[in-house]
Amino acid sequence: MLSPRLQAREEGDSGAMIISRTPFRISFFGGGTDYPIWRLEHPGAVVATTINKYCHISCRWLPPFFEHTSRVVWSKIEEVKDRAEIQHPSVRETLKFLDITEGIELHHDGDLPARAGLGSSSSFTVGLLHALYGLKGHMPGKLQLANDAIYVEQQLLKEYVGSQDQIMAAVGGLHRIDFPMGQTFHISPIILEGERLDMLQDHLMLFFTGLSRTASEIAEEQIRATSKKTQELYAMYHMVDEAIRILQGKGDLDAFGQLLHDGWQLKRSLTDRISTPHIDDMYETARRAGAIGGKLLGAGGGGFLLLYVRPEEQPRVREVLEEFLWVPFRFERSGSRIIFYEPEEAYDAAATRAGKTARMTPARV
Length: 365
Fold this sequence. Notes:
The strands form two sheets. Strands 1, 2, 3, 4, 5, 6, 7, 12 and 13 form a nine-stranded mixed β-sheet that branches. The chain has a four-stranded antiparallel β-sheet with strand order 9-10-8-11. It is built from 13 helices and 13 strands. The longest helix has 19 residues, at 230-248.
């Protein structure tokens, strides 16, 4: 049986440099109802969008000239001789999932920091799957990317994560996602007139709290409390319908901001780790300056604070939050994409197949 690299060559592809671009997401309502433990007995739903901030993954087969067989560059630089030695858990398990045993070179670049509530870990997994599938000569559909990423994170990595992040990263756009009891999901685009959509975006502001956290650790505590928070989670679930009614209606859009505030008050009551005094003070400062509502994105504990603010009040909000980084953004609709593909010249396939390709240390210059 040929390796993925040689199989791609047999099919007319000598290998390639591939770059995937996968968006981060903002979740407005319903977060927590997409966790597997909730979906065992209850339905879930979320309203979320992807934004024009991205995770970029570039990869290629590693040329056969190095002492190491794979090189992985993220916040660390890993040079390993065996797939099992890779420290980055998503990279290691995704290579295993796709049965890639040959050496690769992989680089990660993100527009925004990791562990900040924007679904960055799932964007990484989706983008990695997309790039590696391309390297093998296969272009998966968006639903396959979403389902594969959910499997890698929930089943292989055993992380305490829901399912909305992987779906949003793969599909892109402004959507309602329904999670019936079980393992299925349904995606429904939220259709808004252009003026209404622009108005929504013009009222949203994003600030970095300066704090990063591991979402899985905070989510684990929330999951343990799920059975005691059924009333709160159902209230958050029903806010999805109300949010869509406001967005698609003709009334004052400020009701969306107030609903964000109400949802944040519910969310922060789930466990005492979701918010902190630092975050509470930041949020209340913004409210006093004119913000109608908002929420801490992701599992909580840090990351990005989303605010709903009338455009005329935004200069004042920026002034009182001047110590925090403001990040302008817009919605995006493309989801995960391959944005660069360049075939490379094949090395001696026969020598590679026979395992006779010499490896040597590159010259120092």
